[in-house]
Amino acid sequence: MLNIVLFGPPGAGKGTQSQNLIEQYGLVHLSTGDILRGEIKEGTDLGMKAKKLMDLGELVPDEVVIGMISHKIELNKHGKGFVFDGFPRTQAQAKALDVLLELKGTEITCMLALEVPDEELKARLLERGKSSGRPDDQNEEVIANRVAVYQRDTAPVKEYYAGQSKYRAVNGLGDIGDITARLAEAIDAATEV
Ligand code: AMP
Question: By the 8 A CB rule, do 13 and 172 touch?
Answer without folding.
Answer: yes
